[in-house]
Amino acid sequence: MSGTVNPIIPGFAPDPSVVKVGDWFYLINSSFHFFPGLPIYASKDLISWQQIGNAINRQAQLSLAKSDANLVLVDKGKVMIASGGLYAPTIRYHQGTFYVVCTNVIHLPGKEKDLTENFIVSTDNIWSDIWTDPIYFEFVGIDPSLFFDEDGKTYIQGSAAPGPYTTINLFEVDLNTGAKLSEEKVIWRGTGDIYPEGPHLYKCNGWYYLLIAEGGTHEGHMVTMARSRHVLGPYESCPNNPVLTARGTAEYIQYTGHCEIFQDEKKQWWGTCIGARIDDQGRCTMGRETFLTRVAWDNEWFTFEQVKLKPSLLETRSSPNLTAKPGVDCLYIRDAVMSNYRVTGTSVTLTASSVDLSHPELSPTFIGKRQRQLHGTSSVVLQGIEESWGSAKILAGLACYKEEHRYVRIYYDAGKLEVVFELVNVAKKIARTEKHVLGKVPPSVAFRVDYTEKEYRLLYSVESNTGQDWTCLGTVDTFDVTNPDFTGPVIGIYALGQTAGVQVRFESLKVD
Ligand code: 6LW
After folding, report:
1. Single pTM value for the model
2. Which residue segments constitute the domains of the chain, with CATH numbers given?
3. 197 is an active site residue
4. DSSP string covering 356-398
């Protein structure tokens, strides 16, 4: 096998969970404050993955209104950006039904502790968009996982946080009602590092193996294991813990942790986990992504290969090329007002709203896609600009957005007849703008953002988008949007206006 395989899901793809059903592997990720939530990807070869749906795809399923991100001071004055919304789902299959368990983390203003609403959604056809409404179950914590035992009992394992410290807890559940069928029991506290979380249980050869993450999701992240003869424990720690970590190494792929293991049809074990490509100066341009690594089981314990861009794969498998479902990968912010978006062919008409990207709860008029390429270009043309937009104070353009605290954008300001570049990083106290005065209403404005691991360049062209006459308005070192965080870059178009109902048409949005 030649070429780079990892990350298998590039860009903003944390907390992977995988299930194999028939010939297909299905993978799900966290999505935090974006709608639709919990993207699902399918693959037959573990390398090429296609998004086939989202488990949260109707606003009636749940609200993301309280998914604003907290700024948390961590060591050496670093600020971590802890988003709310949909965290670390687990996907499982049982007797013809796919189940996803997940947490909606709700930030309550003025309260030190977030509310964690844990729920189950399910479908009989993962290729459809038909997922049930959430069934909630009682659990104070995050990262629920499901385990179907051979005796017919179903258990939830999760990272429980009734107090300041987390433990791995387990209880029996009725999946149809969410009712707790047993007491919640602490089954493991990890090896002693911070935040034991992301647990998954597997049964092999009479052993219950518990795989968890510890050390926090950034520099300290690691995967540890324990096992027991009984589902309720006691669990003994693996003598080789941590079984996977990049902490303290010079690996390019850092933060490895939050892992899921599974077998292929030849009984070969694999792991998918979080990792982040960190350059030699600390830039984390793509956020936490999904990586694949080989795992081996020696009848006693599991061993994991260090995560590399090119893992050692035994053979090349084949995967059919799936046709992309239109719109399945489009993202909106929180409880989007869907009537503000009209997509016809290559044009997207946005109804401007007065909510800006910085708003912590409401939904700005924004539609985007995850940045998938480390080196790429995204572009769009703003068409049909009207003189009357000046009085409506319309601002419309292209943005690279992580959450309300961090974005970089280039836009047309109809009131001032200017093109503006703006970088905002509240956590790093950065606010920077550059402006070019156009002086008259342009027929159209093309926007472009070129990116590398080190830099975003934001360009515009008022005459054409042929690439001949682009003007670079601003550049951003990607370090300026790198913070310890949960999300990743999403690139899209937006329209902001002080008068309700003004329509703004964009053509040919392309996101790499
Ligand atoms: C997630 C936790 C984690 O719930 O980060 O890396 C949290 N792991 O398991 C947010 O993604």
Report:
1. 0.97
2. 17-247 (2.115.10.20), 332-510 (2.60.120.200)
3. yes
4. -TT-SSS--SEEEEE---SSEEEEEEEE---TTHHHHT-EEEE
